[in-house]
């Protein structure tokens, strides 16, 4: 049984702890909430619990369908044992329906259904505002080489297919989502989390938002939205 040792890193939503095994870390999910690159801050009661549980369920689903992830197992209500990875500083966003920044950039109405999914890359740099990158930027910054970009792209689309079909059967529309990837011994693994913090989930019947947009846009009912997603995927 591995134990939680000193903290290696604390982010906006999670803490990462070292264990006796250099290839294993423990991730603890927090209730802290941020938006707009940390400009808006708050707390969502039990968010850490819901996100840990939802992420575990969806990581298990992806593993069962051939996607390699950092997830190993749940350790409790808010903690997970995962493989240590060196995070690739890219935020990989897959979009099925126009929402958020894409609506503003392209002048398309929110809710417009794309004919095919779009994948986007953002530089994971809060101090720069997480700028949008293309493949040439990624290579120039030496964030990933061309083969790695191809692998990450293929994994992103595969994750989208699996999650979109699964969630549709749960009455949830997968609008868009952010993924992060990391390397362990040269292997690229899906990392971070998959939760209402990192995905846009809309109820298929009502169109109700079931994600962090309720916090971003001061819509209220944030805790209930997270709880609803958990109740459908647990």
What is the structure about, briefly put?
This protein has helices at 47-64, 101-106, 135-140, 146-168, 213-216, 222-233, and strands at 7-10, 14-18, 24-29, 32-35, 40-43, 71-74, 79-83, 86-87, 90-97, 113-123, 132-133, 172-184, 187-191, 199-203. It is an alpha+beta fold and 234 residues long.
Give structural attributes.
single chain, phosphoribosylaminoimidazolesuccinocarboxamide synthase activity, five-stranded antiparallel beta sheet, globular, alpha+beta, 2 domains, D-amino Acid Aminotransferase, Chain A, domain 1, 6 helices, Phosphorylase Kinase, domain 1, 234 residues, seven-stranded antiparallel beta sheet
**Total domain count:** 2
Low-confidence stretches: none
* β-sheet strand percentage: 25-35%
Name the helicity range.
25-40%
According to CATH, the homologous superfamily of the largest domain is ATP-grasp fold, B domain
Do you know the CATH topology of the largest domain? Answer: D-amino Acid Aminotransferase, Chain A, domain 1
Distance between the termini: 25 Å
Average pLDDT works out at: 97
Q: What is the string of helix and strand elements?
A: EEEEEHEEEEHEEHHEEEHH
What is the molecular shape? globular
Secondary-structure-based class equals: alpha+beta
EC number: 6.3.2.6
GO molecular function, one term: ATP binding
Pathway: Purine metabolism; IMP biosynthesis via de novo pathway; 5-amino-1-(5-phospho-D-ribosyl)imidazole-4-carboxamide from 5-amino-1-(5-phospho-D-ribosyl)imidazole-4-carboxylate: step 1/2
Enzyme class: ligase
